[in-house]
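Quick check before the chapter quiz. The format below is the same one you will see on the exam, so make sure you can read both the input and the output lines.
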Amino acid sequence: NIATNAALLGGFVFSLIGDVGEDVSPVMEGFYFSCSVLSLGLLMYSVLCSTLGVSLAPTKAFKDREHASMRVAIENLKEDQKKVNIAFNAGVALFAVLVAMKVWIGLHENDWPTFVISLFIIVAVSGITISTMRDMSKKYALPPTMKATSSPGVVSGARFLSMSETVAANATTTTATAK
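Here is the expected output.
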């Protein structure tokens, strides 16, 4: 769940907020705190909006018998999911920047090799993580042939709504004809 991950990372970001040291320039300190607050804000946005979306969408979806509200709820969830994913990914990226800055601040001016090695490790692990996430997304995504057609007895959400609307319309017509 993205809300759980965002909350966990938000806790890590919160733990990084604090005294940055005496040797740090005001510009670096301001940038550090700005990144911290922005990362925490984006991760909290992810927690709150994703939790609210999964709480309110089912209520919206089952409000009427014509299933129009279900269609609206699905479309709203898709739209909200994009926003939450952008905020979460930006918060995670800022968290990586914070870790790099914390390493830089913790080291002395003449300790460039350690910083470069640390930065290389951060970039390498981030790259491996992103690559693995892409591979996993592709692995679990439906193949294009399944998206266009479905297995016998299995219908897409849009097709289900269309079928439900047809059944409801036929039931209304049948009821009107019987009277």
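If your answer matched, good. The chain has six helices and no strands.
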